[in-house]
């Protein structure tokens, strides 16, 4: 099934500036920590376990936003109010190879760059690439459809605000980036392993169309103020690759997906290149 692009809306540039400004004003109210919680023994994804997503907000006083927050992620990207804004512009990334480590955090597999791996630019602000990790199946949904895998590229700016690029995968041909990592992932325990130079540019995605909204981390502490960019293109991953990621994590985290959250008045922006109709 292909993602369906939402209907066109010719948003004016002035509206875009006002909307982005109002969204960004939310960020200082709840600065996003650069790290998700790494001790997975205190939470779970299984409802009814007493530590599942519905209980996250009660498990730790620092996690109350998981229960009370109004900007929580993930969401169904086609399930609420959207604005199509060609003026958002093509996604601007400047990635470069850098030393990295691979770590099994128990609830997921993470690649963390130790050197300068480049950045992402949003509205004139640069966000340094920190790490990437995988969720299986996908956390964001499209009209209720959940795909097989979702990769999160996590970035941090000078004000310690987070921006995440999410890439969605369906079953098909193996993903080249995962192909290079899997021999190491299959052999690792809970320790962190040096991987050498890793080029984030090998994570291929098409930036011509994407969704953007202000949301949260999808694991405790569920910090809000995260700028989400979800690529509107399905990449492919093999069944063996998804199985390897699931086999590597601890029991109970094979499906490390938070349920979709309420829109709660969120506005999701959608970028698609402006079609030149030839009219003045």
TrEMBL record:
Q: Which domain of life is it from?
A: Eukaryota
**Where does this protein chiefly localize?**
plastid
Q: Name one Pfam family in it.
A: Carb_anhydrase
Q: Which GO terms describe its cellular component?
A: chloroplast stroma
Q: Which GO terms describe its biological process?
A: one-carbon metabolic process
Gene3D superfamilies recorded: Alpha carbonic anhydrase
State one molecular function term (GO): zinc ion binding
Q: What positions does the domain Alpha-carbonic anhydrase occupy?
A: 41-272
- Name the InterPro entries for this protein: Alpha_CA_prokaryot-like, CA_dom, CA_dom_sf, Carbonic_anhydrase_a-class
The similarity comment for this entry is: Belongs to the alpha-class carbonic anhydrase family.
**In its UniProt entry, what is this protein called?**
A. THALIANA ALPHA CARBONIC ANHYDRASE 4, alpha carbonic anhydrase 4
* Organism, as annotated: Hibiscus trionum (Flower of an hour)
Q: What is the lineage of its organism?
A: Eukaryota, Viridiplantae, Streptophyta, Embryophyta, Tracheophyta
């Amino acid at each position: 099934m292909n993602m369906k692009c939402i209907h066109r809306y010719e948003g004016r540039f002035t509206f875009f500036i006002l909307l982005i400004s109002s969204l960004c004003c939310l960020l200082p109210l709840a600065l996003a920590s650069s790290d998700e919680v790494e001790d997975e023994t205190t939470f779970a994804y299984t409802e009814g376990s007493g530590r599942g997503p519905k209980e996250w907000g009660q498990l730790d006083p620092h996690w109350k936003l998981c229960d009370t927050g109004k900007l929580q992620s993930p969401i169904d990207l086609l399930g609420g109010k959207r604005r199509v804004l060609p003026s958002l512009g093509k996604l601007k990334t400047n990635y470069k190879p850098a030393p990295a480590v691979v770590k099994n955090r128990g609830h997921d597999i993470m690649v963390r760059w130790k050197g300068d791996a480049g950045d992402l630019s949003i509205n004139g602000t640069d966000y340094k690439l920190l790490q990437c990790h995988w969720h299986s199946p996908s956390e964001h949904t499209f009209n209720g459809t959940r795909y097989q895998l979702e990769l999160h590229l996590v970035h941090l700016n000078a004000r310690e605000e987070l921006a995440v690029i999410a890439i969605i995968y369906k079953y098909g041909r193996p993903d080249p980036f995962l192909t290079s990592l899997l021999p190491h992932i299959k052999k690792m325990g809970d320790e962190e392993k040096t991987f050498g130079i890793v080029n984030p540019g090998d994570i291929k995605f098409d930036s011509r169309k994407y969704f953007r909204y202000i949301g949260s981390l999808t694991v405790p502490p569920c910090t809000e103020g995260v700028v989400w960019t979800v690529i509107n293109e399905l990449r492919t991953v093999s069944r063996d690759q998804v199985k390897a990621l699931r086999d590597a994590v601890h029991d109970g985290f094979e499906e490390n997906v938070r349920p979709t959250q309420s829109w709660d008045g969120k506005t999701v922006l959608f970028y698609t290149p402006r079609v030149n109709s030839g009219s003045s």
